[in-house]
Write a structure and sequence with these properties.
Layout (H helix, E strand, L loop, with lengths): L2 E5 L5 H7 L2 H8 L4 E5 L13 E4 L11 H15 L3 E5 L1 H9 L3 E4 L5 E9 L12 E8 L1 E5 L4 E6 L7 E4 L3 E4 L7 H9 L2 H4 L1 H10 L6 H13 L5
Length: about 230
């Protein structure tokens, strides 16, 4: 499956020197070759050249008035109409929602950082092994508040009702960051202490004593990409 990685941010050099960039992170979690395109720099692939797309996270919000974000929404809508498999992570998850008619807003819960628990609300055939809940790394303050038509909420929590959703069997959004390591997550939220506040930072640090279910979410992402039961 020919897959493009749509990169939505340039990570700070001091972080990439230690943890690598988004290309490195996604190559470590997806067992398929990824051709990177820095859409943040207005570098988009021809939508007909690829079978599937993965949209990364970003420090920006999907409702920010940047030209590349508007272009990415149009591209995503086109990919949906063409039936391309697409997975969005955090910002990408939110971008899918907005591109297809949903809505994203700043959450009343503020920043969600560190490891959070999510309940599986709908079990699909490709979600193997079946579980009732999972843990994932979070780094966001925006959330999907209105879903596109024909969406299914697959997981959620009290602080994040739309943790994972699918649209028409070929689009998948994941609010967490399965591509992150605990060390990267910590380094990012600690660098934003003035915005986030020490109380949330301390809770997030404590949460890192747990381990995220990275292998599970990797399995789900790969199964979703390879599923052939689109009807």
């Amino acid at each position: 499956m020919k897959t493009a990685l749509l990169v939505c941010d340039h990570l700070p050099e001091k972080l990439t020197a230690v943890h690598g960039n988004y290309i490195h992170m996604f190559n470590s979690i997806l067992d398929i070759p990824l051709d990177p395109f820095y859409v943040i720099d207005h570098n988009f692939p021809d939508p007909d050249d690829y079978d599937a797309y993965v949209i990364t996270g970003s420090k920006y919000s999907v409702y920010d008035s940047f030209g590349w974000i508007s272009m990415l929404k149009e591209f995503t809508s086109m990919a949906f109409d063409k039936g391309k498999k697409t997975i969005g992570i955090c910002f990408g998850h939110q971008l899918i929602a907005e591109a297809l008619g949903g809505k994203v807003e700043r959450s009343r819960n503020g920043f969600l950082i560190g490891i959070h628990d999510f309940r599986i609300l709908q079990k699909e055939k490709w979600m193997d092994p079946p579980v009732s809940n999972y843990k994932t790394l979070m780094l966001c303050q925006d959330q999907v508040v209105k879903l596109p038509e024909n969406s299914i909420v697959l997981s959620g929590s009290s602080h994040c009702p739309v943790g994972m959703f699918s649209v028409d069997k070929h689009f998948l959004g994941i609010q967490g960051h399965p591509e992150f390591t605990k060390e990267y997550n910590r380094d990012v939220f600690e660098s934003r202490i003035e915005k986030i506040g020490i109380e949330k930072i301390e809770v997030a640090r404590a949460s890192l004593h747990n381990d995220p279910d990275t292998s599970l979410l990797k399995s789900y992402m790969m199964s979703f990409m390879k599923r052939d039961d689109i009807e």
